[in-house]
Design a protein that fits this description.
The protein is an alpha/beta fold and 356 residues long. It is built from 15 helices and nine strands. Strands 1-4-5-6-7-8-9 form a seven-stranded parallel beta sheet. Strands 2-3 form a two-stranded antiparallel sheet. α4 packs parallel to α6, α9 runs parallel beside α10 and α14 runs parallel beside α15. The longest helix has 25 residues. The relative contact order is 0.13.
C-alpha cells in the first residue's frame, strides 16, 4: 500500500505531539524535567530496592516503574525515560561510578590517544536494558501520554568525559576546545555516532519524541558554541530525521542566551527547551512564532509554591497562548520539592484536579 503524502498523513491526537506539529491547543501539554526523582516517596522506595543508581538505570522493570510513577500520580502529558546521560560514555568503554554525596565520577580522558579505547559499535549490548525499559513503558502508558526518549548532547557528555566529573568551570573541556580542537572533534565524532545510534534504538523500541540535553551549552563563546553545540546536534538530528521523519526532536541548549535565536533552524530541532533565564517577551518575539518552545519555570518556584509560583505560571501561560508551547521547567525538579506543590502546578496548568 502506498504511503500517504505528508499533506494527507494522519494528524496526531496526543497533546504533546499536537503541539510539536504546530496545532492549536486550549492549554499547553506539560511534563517536567526530572519528574521521576527523589522528591517522590515512591521513587525513593524503588531506588532503595534497586540498590544503586546505576542498578536502577539498568533494571528494565524498575526503570519503567519509576518512569511511570509521576504519570500515575500527576497525569502528565508525557513520560520521559528514566536513565542518565552518562550511560553512553560507560557503554563506549569509559569507567563510571556514582558516589554518594559526590555524583558521577568517570575515568577522565587526558590525551587524544585515549580516545582509541572508546568503541561506538559496542554500545548496544550494554544499553539493551534501556531499550527494554522503553518497550515496557510504552506498553503501560495511558493512551494520551507521549513517551520521550533522550540523550545528552555531545558537548555536555564530553565535558564529563574530559573532566572526569561535574565541574564549575569546565576547565579541561574548554582547554580541549581552545587548545586541541581537532582532538575534541574526534571525540565529537565518536559521540555523534553513539548518540545517534542510541536514540535510533530508543525510537525503534517505542519512543515517540526524543530530547537532547545540552546542559553546558551556555559555557562556550559563539564560535565554539556553533562548532561543538550546534554542529553535532545538527548531525544527529539529520540522521534521525532520515530514519524516523515522523519523530519530533526537542533540543535543550541550556544557557545559550541570544544564541537560542536561529538554533532550531541551524540544528533541525522541532522544538527548543528554554532555561529559566530566557526573558519571556524575548522568547515570544524571537522564537515562539517560528518553532514550539518548552519551559521555562524556575524549579525553585516549585519549592516555594504559593502565590509566587501561581503568578509565574500565569505569566508563562499568557506569554505563549494557544499554540507552540510545552509547559515545563527551565531545569530539573530539585529533590526538596514538596509533592503538594507539583500537584498545585498541575492544577494551575490543566485547570483540573490531579490524579492521586
Amino acid at each position: 500500500m502506498a504511503r500517504l503524502p505528508p499533506a494527507q498523513a494522519e494528524q496526531p491526537t496526543k497533546p504533546l505531539l499536537c503541539t510539536l506539529a504546530g496545532l492549536p491547543s486550549e492549554r499547553p501539554p506539560m511534563w517536567l524535567m526530572r519528574q521521576a526523582g527523589r522528591y517522590l516517596p515512591e521513587y525513593r522506595a524503588t531506588r532503595a530496592q534497586a540498590g544503586s543508581f546505576l542498578d536502577l538505570c539498568y533494571n528494565p522493570a524498575l526503570a519503567a516503574e519509576v518512569t511511570l510513577q509521576p504519570i500515575r500520580r500527576f497525569g502528565f502529558d508525557a513520560a520521559i525515560l528514566f536513565a542518565d546521560i552518562l550511560l553512553v560514555p560507560q557503554a563506549l568503554g569509559q569507567g563510571l561510578a556514582f558516589k554518594e554525596n559526590e555524583g558521577p565520577v568517570l575515568d577522565a580522558i587526558r590525551a587524544v590517544g585515549e580516545l582509541a579505547r572508546l568503541d561506538p559499535k559496542g554500545i548496544h549490548k550494554r544499553l539493551e536494558p534501556v531499550y527494554e525499559a522503553v518497550s515496557r513503558i510504552k506498553g503501560e502508558l495511558p493512551p494520551d501520554c507521549t513517551l520521550i526518549g533522550f540523550a545528552g548532547a555531545p558537548w555536555t557528555v564530553a565535558t564529563y568525559m574530559l573532566e572526569g566529573r561535574g565541574s564549575s568551570d569546565h576547565a579541561a573541556a574548554k582547554t580541549w576546545a581552545f587548545g586541541n580542537p581537532r582532538g575534541l572533534d574526534t571525540l565529537m565524532d565518536i559521540l555523534v555516532q553513539a548518540t545517534t545510534d542510541y536514540l535510533d534504538r530508543q525510537i525503534v523500541a517505542g519512543a515517540e519524541v526524543v530530547q537532547l540535553f545540552d546542559t553546558w551549552a551556555g559555557v562556550l563563546p559563539e564560535a565554539e558554541f556553533r562548532r561543538y553545540c550546534i554542529e553535532p546536534v545538527r548531525r544527529i538530528i539529520a540522521v534521525l530525521k532520515q530514519k524516523h521523519p515522523q519523530v519530533p526532536v526537542i533540543a535543550f541548549p541550556r544557557g545559550a542566551g541570544a544564541l537560542y535565536e536561529g538554533y532550531a533552524a541551524a540544528t533541525g530541532a522541532d522544538a527548543i527547551g528554554l532555561d529559566y533565564t530566557v526573558p519571556l517577551a524575548w522568547a515570544r518575539d524571537h522564537l515562539w512564532n517560528k518553532t514550539p518552545v518548552q519551559g521555562n519555570l524556575d524549579p525553585r518556584l516549585l519549592v516555594v509554591g504559593g502565590q509566587a509560583m501561581a503568578e509565574a505560571v500565569q505569566r508563562l501561560l499568557r506569554s505563549f497562548p494557544g499554540r507552540n508551547h510545552i509547559f515545563n521547567l527551565g531545569h530539573g525538579i530539585v529533590p526538596e520539592t514538596p509533592v503538594r506543590h507539583v500537584e498545585e502546578l498541575v492544577r494551575l496548568v490543566k485547570g483540573t484536579e490531579t490524579a492521586v
